[in-house]
Amino acid sequence: MKSTSVSTKIITILLLLAVIGYFAVQGYNYFVSPETTTLVYRYHSERSIALRGYVVRDEQVVDCNETLIELKHAEGERVGQGDTIASVYRSADALNATQQLETLCAQKEQLEYAKSASSDAATALRLDTDIREQIISVRAAYESGAYSSLDTLIPQLKTTVLKREYAYNGSDDLTAKLDELSGGTTRITAPVSGTYSAVADGYESVLTPEVLETMTPSQLSSAAPQSVSTTVGKLIQGSAWYFAANVNEKDAASLKENSRLTLRMASGVDFDLPVTLTRISAAENGKCLIVLKSTRYLSYMTLLREQNAELIISAYHGLRVPKNALRVDENGVSGVYCLVGRVAYFKPVSIVYQGSDYCLVEPGTIEAATESQKSLYTLRPNDEVIVSAGELYNGKVVD
């Protein structure tokens, strides 16, 4: 028992001596040979403002009080004035079985195609080719285990087969069948041309491009949607969309109207959006309302309304070096010392951007007799820059 206690004490003393020795070596290295280095690498930095605001568009809601509706256009699709937005079904059979509706609509499309193509031999031959290709696609999907794609491929094949049947056998009875299928439907057409969206949220008449021209920060903060009746969606006129948000008066002072900036949405869009700052309102209780405008990517913006975002004011690219690695030589040139082997070389730089504890730089102008000398004194990614050291000069051998 006593022997075990002595062994434990000896091990403890040895561990303590090892820790003391480690810190002693580190302290010696710091005071006697204080050089510390880090690698240079390319870096991207941005100056930005966090926003929470609203996407605004010139929107016209298309009302509809019916309940059994089939939409004819996908989200973000362009629609011409007078085009069919939706079909309203009134038949008792359709009300009781929506699956039958889908079958009838598919059959209607098939019959319309067949009627127009029944006398076209070239179309019939093309359908034969389409059927062969679609059979191959169905078989490949089945053999590869891609069963989810069969839900799309098989209905396409059925449609093509029906088209082929009527293309070869004639269409004497097609008109009657089309009339039968169309008798229980009513068309809803587009009152104006625009980009289609299936969702109306009540902000369409509250937040408009015209309202943004005079809106105050408090009005934006209190904006609330109106009640929405049954609709088949809305049409967005033109190609422009806007983003309105309140910012601190201090942040607003750093902005300038008509400047081109970048907007980065927190969700809904996974790429940066180019925008132009069209308005900065007067300050109200320390806040200013800003309006950003864009005429690109409208089809991606149709479902977005209240959003968190980041307004990128400026972006910088360069080689990142620690701030305390920057030095000025006897000629007043800014640069950093880098280790090449064990020798310190001064490499001139020009400062692109200063962060809190780092700088972004680019290689400075170098006057050298040869290309090899120029290469030696040019700062590059992965160079080993000296962050802290005692006295440094060009060509010093660092032990």
Question: Could you give the topology of this structure?
Answer:
Layout: H1 2-32, E1 36-39, E2 41-56, E3 59-63, E4 69-71, E5 78-79, E6 84-89, H2 92-96, H3 98-117, H4 121-144, H5 150-169, H6 174-182, E7 185-189, E8 194-197, H7 209-212, H8 217-221, E9 231-236, E10 241-248, H9 249-253, E11 260-265, E12 273-280, E13 287-294, E14 306-322, E15 327-328, E16 334-340, E17 343-354, E18 358-363, H10 371-376, E19 384-388
Antiparallel strand pairs: 1-19, 2-10, 2-14, 3-9, 4-6, 5-8, 6-7, 8-9, 10-13, 11-12, 11-14, 12-13, 14-18, 15-16, 16-17, 16-19, 17-18
Helix pairs in contact: 3-5, 3-6, 4-5
Describe the structure.
By secondary structure, this protein is α+β, with helices and mostly antiparallel strands. Helix content is 32%, strand content 33%. It is built from ten helices and 19 strands. It has helices at 2-32, 92-96, 98-117, 121-144, 150-169, 174-182, 209-212, 217-221, 249-253, 371-376; strands at 36-39, 41-56, 59-63, 69-71, 78-79, 84-89, 185-189, 194-197, 231-236, 241-248, 260-265, 273-280, 287-294, 306-322, 327-328, 334-340, 343-354, 358-363, 384-388. It has a six-stranded antiparallel β-barrel with strand order 2-10-13-12-11-14. A four-stranded antiparallel β-sheet has the order 3-9-8-5, with no helix packed on it. Strands 4-6-7 form a three-stranded antiparallel β-sheet, with no helix packed on it. The longest helix is centred in the N-terminal third of the chain and has 31 residues, at 2-32. It is extended. Mean pLDDT is 83; it is low at 28-33.
